[in-house]
Amino acid sequence: MYTNIRTSIKNNRLQILIILIFLIATITFTHALFSTKTVRVGLDNVAVRQGPALSYAKMGNLNAGKRVTVLKKEDGWIRIRYNDQELGWIPGWLTNRKFGFKKAKNLSEATIILDPGHGGNDSGALGINQKNEEKTYTLKTANVVKEALENQGTRVFMTRSNDTYVGLAARATLSNSKKADAFISFHYDSAAQNNSGSGDTTYYYHKNTSLKLAEAVNSQLKTKINLTNRGVEFGDFEVIRDNTQPALLIEGGYINTKADFNQIKTQTYRKQVASAVTNGLTNFFSKD
After folding, report:
1. What is the DSSP string of 204-219?
2. Which residues form the SH3b domain (predicted)?
């Protein structure tokens, strides 16, 4: 009997091998099919990229609540299938979470990240005489805002406190790791031609977490700063795009426009910005 079985196996080795390969493939496919995981995107305008890093090209955007299928995980990123046949990569930490961030009810309960733009070998925009560097004035402004907030009992962290270079990703990472109640980045605009631009602008990226914050702060800038207020706009800037906390970026006037810079360079202007930010945050936290 056993001899007959061995003979049968020997004579049918190829067919048996094919059957085994088919069974293994079937089991593997079935496991993959039933173990496929779906997740929901947690924020609006989450960029879908060609690979698992910010350096890869952006293919599109997904909004909060969008359900996607997870195909692979790598370094915190997930490869997804969405809209039936489209494939791409998104940050895994921006899925399956409800980003309800307004924990603080007032400034004394809040954790705020202040981000003076540029620094170190990154000078930012240059003034009319090429000597006035954006990085100098973003830090001066942030320092005055920091003092004003701390006087209200706020816990404040700075992405840089001196003239050093800090990468864009590290700035957003600090905000995310501290679970900040708000992130505010300070910058100054520059036009292609000297004296051809004017005014301050407030930018947000994630509508569901940051638009109300941007509106609250901008409404105060409009009343306290003697510049043309250019309003609230969507801005695709990395420090607010990759921020899972309420985040905004202020372009506080044109550094290469004489009239704007005559204000930017003064302590009075910085105190006005500090007052606007403090009042704007107070209003933001006090609303449901």
Report:
1. ES-HHHHHHHHHHHHH
2. 34-98
The closest of 47, 213, 195, 183 to 113, measured between CA atoms, is 183
Q: What count of Cα atoms within 13 Å lies in the side-chain half-sphere of residue 241? A: 17
Looking at residue 36, its pLDDT comes to 57
Nearest to 72 by CA among 44, 56, 53, 52: 52
Architecture of domain 107-286 in this structure? 3-Layer(aba) Sandwich (3.40)
Q: What is the pLDDT of residue 96?
A: 75
Question: Which region among 33-42, 159-168, 236-245 has the lowest average model confidence (pLDDT)?
Answer: 33-42
* Confidence at residue 45, expressed as pLDDT on a 0 to 100 scale: 74
| CATH number for domain 37-94, candidates 3.40.50.1110, 2.30.30.40, 3.40.50.150, 3.90.220.20 | 2.30.30.40
- φ, ψ (nearest 5 deg) of residue 237: -110, 135
Phi–psi pair at 250, nearest 5 degrees: -105, 120
pTM for the whole structure: 0.72
The answer to whether residues 144 and 267 touch, using CB atoms and an 8 Å cutoff, is yes
- What are the extents of the domains in the chain? 2-35, 37-94, 107-286
Q: Which residues of 23-50 are buried (b: 16+ CB within 10 A; e: fewer)?
A: eeeeeeeeeeeeeeeebebbbbbbbbbe
The residue with tokens 């003979």 is 7
Do 37-94 and 107-286 fold alike per CATH?
A: no
Whole-number Cα distances in Å, 6 to 1, 143, 175: 9, 84, 68
Q: Could you give the CA distance from residue 202 to residue 21 in angstroms, rounded to a whole number?
A: 61
